[in-house]
């Protein structure tokens, strides 16, 4: 491993060894070397006497003073400078330097926390004195001192102006760069720019004091690059082992790493002890450093040594402001921003001490002071909110936390505290906000895990750094969702257990108990039983229960055992009744006065076991009531027993009413069970009144029932029985819509079977059969699978729908549900058998009334079988063996006879009629099918004949087209041969004509001279234009041209051109006529045949192309004529050349 790089790397080994030596020349010429690091005397007067005796120059005095200052012996340094200033050997310029040095020395006192106010005043006076003596604008040292003084006074803008001015003079001024970097780091928080400036200083002067590596490390720390920050501070400490700032920052970083990244308790304890030892060492080096003192205050606070914490904080406050904690700390004019932050931390720890002592008023004052000193002190704001909560000022605390949330939306503590505060509000809107805040808190805690130090390593650091979640957050969320969504409430309780398992801890048993209760309410009895069993087993293995103060709670174990055991027995009543009874009896042995278990045993004895007679049960209940007359649970059970079994044990008819009234009047006027019982009694009494003569009495009973139901809802707004009773009263008074609205609201807030059953009843009365069936099916599927009563309701609903909509399939559904109800019934079945027979009768009657075309033979046969079954059922119900028939036996017998004598005969007649109708329909269908087949065969035959005829016609036409094409090709060949012969004749004729013309021109040229030449030119032009003319017009055109030449010798060239064009046009028009004659012949030829085809049309197109080519060839002479008419001289030369060529 390489050795660390020290100062010798930058200065060289020899220079590094002599860096602390001062060589002082003596008056005798010798030199004395003083080691200002190791040989510096404690008393500065020794060196002062030596320097004064030898009349040493200014620089030696300043060197000695600097050595004392660097050794933190500031008073000795001050003594050296003040002695030098009093000597007469120094001139005004030297004394000016001493005054400047004094200003820096006083600033050193300020940075060390020694009499800051007084030393700031002294530094200001020295700088003012220097400015008054210095006629120039000020030296660099003085300007830098002023800038630093402004920084201590928290006057940022003047300091920044000075630094910028110095950098304009010298952009490599390291002190100015350091000062500007510090301003950017602390004020603008632009850490990247500050880092660049610190790095620039490091490049310019690696041995700069103060060390720029301290600032570089701070920038990296705030930029979330902690490894680079630690490297920077370690490097600064390597170069200067006495650098206290580097030691403090490294120690604070180690504290942070230990708190966040410890792998276990042992690892944390070991690293924490190391950090404390380093903190003690730092304190020995400088016992007045505020950062060291505040770190010690946090340690002693964790040890609950509050008096020591107060002493430390008071010392920090006094060293910075000169005041005590009893006075106001906030005085922005006397402290810098950094000092204000330190005072804020001191006030914060004093506030925590007061909070720990439950002096919430004093803690609130300290937290207020801390916030005034530093608005960004988040911990002080959180402490203020907690103090307000403990003082009962929840509204003020809410406002405080809401203001924190605006600036720190991801703060876990703020989201959690606001969620708790909102959840305690009565307002539903606030409770919804509480749910939102707590859910956000859970998301933030889940995503707060720090990233691994090395992204390529999966060392589990991200999970390790994940913030733990407060268990109370899950419990509050579960409570808030309990009234509206029990499933969500149950989910949060399960998450609470999972969160504890993640930190290898178990959740409190109360959570397991609540999960079991929720499952029981949702009718998940097996799941509830398993949860209670788990909680019971965990209770046996639990250690002693302790409170927050560490006191053992002796009774809590027994209380939990009673509650969990009772809930376990309650959840097993349906699945394992015998075990449930054993648990109840065991509870009564341990707790003889536990009435809840006794009442459950009596209830089971009443409804299932029947071990005791009803008179014995009555006696036991009355004994319980005598012992605990005010116990509402016992009174409610007694009321239920009187209502259910009162007649059997010979009690008065109004015993139930009197008992409930006595409960409300004598014991508790808000007992919900008594109120509901009375309300139901009034409803029954109103329902039993018949006839219109007693409508007022009936209305009075209903009004009384409504009042009682309303009172129940005022006592317990979530009482579903009170709400449903109110809805039933509305429905029975023909206000079905009001009742339906109430039931729908109940359904939205409570997931209970009674809600859906009542909704089904109301919707059935309103003839909304599909919706009624839907609610019955929900009740059947969710709560009571294969319950005979609900199956009967479904059968009734399908029957009503089938009869209303006249749909046989709906009636069959009704019969199917009635059969299922009969199969799943456990008690008396006579009424269910009658229901099934009644539906079978209705199906038979429905089929008999159907039109014959809508009947099916299978349906009729099935209806006959069902009717026979129904008749047998009614006969059985009307027999003597049936003890409890649903209707009088005579009526049942009469209906059975009606089915046998009338309805069965009608069905048989319907069957015969339907069979006959079906037979006739089949015959007609067969005949229609045969007729359709014949028509289809005839159409196919006609289509085949037409296709064959069309095929023959096409074949004949194809033959004719072939003949026409062949003949057209022959004619085209003959026409091409005639064209060739005509061209040969034309050439021969033109040659003879040219010879004759030459002879004539030779005779006339000798007599006419120039004029004859001009005429000869015209004749040549005419001759050239007539070469291509057809032979019939050739003789006629020549004399005509001769006469024109004689009469128009002086005409211009345009006349000659017009003449030639006319001849050309006449020639073309003749050719066009000849072509049209050919086409006419073709048309005539085509008329002799059947029809011209597409191939016949192609032949004239070819002729047209050929004649088009001829026309293009014939247009060339006209173009040459126009050229000759434009240029007379060139035409004459061309004529002579042509003559010579012809002669050759």
Automatic annotation (TrEMBL):
Ranges of compositional bias, category Basic residues: 1000-1020
One MF term in the entry's GO annotations: RNA polymerase II C-terminal domain phosphoserine binding
Listed InterPro entries: Ctr9 (IPR031101), TPR-like_helical_dom_sf (IPR011990), TPR_rpt (IPR019734)
Biased composition (Acidic residues): 1024-1040, 1074-1106, 1114-1131
Biased composition (Basic and acidic residues): 989-999
Compositionally biased spans, kind Polar residues: 1132-1144
Residue stretches spanning the membrane: none
This protein's UniProt keywords: Coiled coil, Repeat, TPR repeat
SUPFAM superfamilies: HCP-like, TPR-like
TPR repeats (start-end): 140-173, 210-243, 344-377, 753-786
Coiled coil spans: 918-974
rRNA-binding among keywords: no
Region (Disordered): 989-1144
Record-level GO cellular component terms: Cdc73/Paf1 complex; euchromatin
Superkingdom: Eukaryota
Biological processes annotated in GO: DNA-templated transcription termination; G1/S transition of mitotic cell cycle; mRNA 3'-end processing; negative regulation of mitophagy; positive regulation of transcription elongation by RNA polymerase I; regulation of transcription initiation by RNA polymerase II; regulation of transcription-coupled nucleotide-excision repair; sno(s)RNA 3'-end processing
Descriptive protein name: DEHA2A05830p
Organism: Debaryomyces hansenii (strain ATCC 36239 / CBS 767 / BCRC 21394 / JCM 1990 / NBRC 0083 / IGC 2968)
